[in-house]
Amino acid sequence: MVTIVNIFQASSPFSAILEDPFFNGVTFSSKKEPLLKSSHKENLTISGNPPDQVACQKYGRSDLDYQYWRWQPHNCNLKRWNSTELWEKLRGKRLMFVGDSLNRGQWLSMVCLMQSVIPVEKQFMTQQAHLTSFRAEEYNASIEFLWAPFLVESNSDEPMGHRLPEKILRPDSNLRHSSHWIHADILVFNSYLWWRKGSVKLLWSTEENGVCEEIDGLRGMELAMDAWANWVESNVDPMKKKVFFVTMSPTHLLKQEWEPGKRGNCYGEKLLIKNQTRETNVDMPTTLMVEKVLARLSSKVSVLNITRLTAYRKDGHPSIYRKFYGILSPEELANPASYSDCIHWCLPGVSDVWNELLFQFF
Fold it and tell me: So which domain of life are we looking at (predicted)?
């Protein structure tokens, strides 16, 4: 049985990202089986970083409807997911996701979706510094993730040692990262989450005395996006390299955003948001800035616009059903909402939907 939920969307004069007719269809459908089954991750091993840290079912989540919802654009039938078909299109190529932990979640979703058709003895996972790679021997192809939360160089570039009291970045240099991603055939970038964590300090490549200027996150992101766009303009031939940029993934940290007057967050949420305006759970200043940068690159970058469709998914976060690092205090344990993860996404779940949409571009 397929369940259909139609969702009203008010019009918005502000943002092309929020008005995109393909990514802003108004229907979710719940199918018989999730795109990704939890068992498909059982063979994966990643040194020092368990791949199942957001496997919510494993960590005690018993309601599973969040695994089944799929996005259905208006007047358009999506191509049915086919792992073998995608491997054939990746034959001899490197697909690389570049960005933060949200992009890591999308990479992990892609690996889990794709590894199920590869014999165990012919699949390999390797990790070198901040680059992790899943390789399918028979296709001579790899699906990789490069940790680069700001896209430019920063003191947070260590995947396992990035929780620092202050964030310092070189807004005019991405050489440390681009020396890796330049060799990929297909690139999927994102950057957003880390810019929400307060101000950043700038250390320009030409600065000799090490003095750091401090600016707000939005301005810092604009500088980093400009540096990234400059690299794309100078180095990407669309006939040889595909480049995607994934738009902002909405959070559900404040329940009052979808239920005015109510307190709380995504904890305990099991249903999609209905009857919201386009601006609910969406960072408009960042959205408009990203649109401005991407407009320069229209011939070289395809936009994977997940913002609007993801804004409805208050049900899809791990909440308390994930691996947490560190010991939770008695006060936190007594108030689950206080430590709920309302930023990342359960696997299986929302990230699979993003990859299903990415598949349409191949």
Answer: Eukaryota
Q: What's the pLDDT tens digit per position in 254-299? A: 999 889 999 999 999 999 988 665 556 678 899 999 999 999 998 8
- The single residue of 15, 341, 351, 352 carrying the catalytic annotation is 341
C-alpha to C-alpha distance for 293 and 291, rounded to whole angstroms = 5
Q: Position of tokens 């054939």?
A: 88
Q: Please report the pLDDT score of residue 245 as a whole number.
A: 97
> How far, in Å, are 21, 95, 113, 140, 239 from residue 91 at the CA level?
32, 10, 16, 6, 17
Largest pairwise CA distance in the chain: 66
Closest CA to 194 of 232, 168, 229, 231: 168
Mapping DSSP to helix (H, G, I), strand (E, B) and coil, where does residue 284 land? Answer: helix
Given the residues 101, 109, 178, 319, select the one marked as catalytic: 101
Q: For 360, which DSSP code? A: T
Higher pLDDT, 309 or 211: 309
Helical segments of the chain, H only: 16-19, 83-90, 101-115, 175-181, 217-235, 284-295, 307-311, 330-334, 350-359
Catalytic residue among 177, 191, 344, 351: 344
Based on the residue annotation, tell me whether 341 is a catalytic residue of this protein.
yes
Helix (H, G, I), strand (E, B) or coil at 174: coil
Catalytic (active site) residue 29 = no
What is the rounded distance in angstroms from the CA atom of residue 118 to the CA atom of residue 88? 12
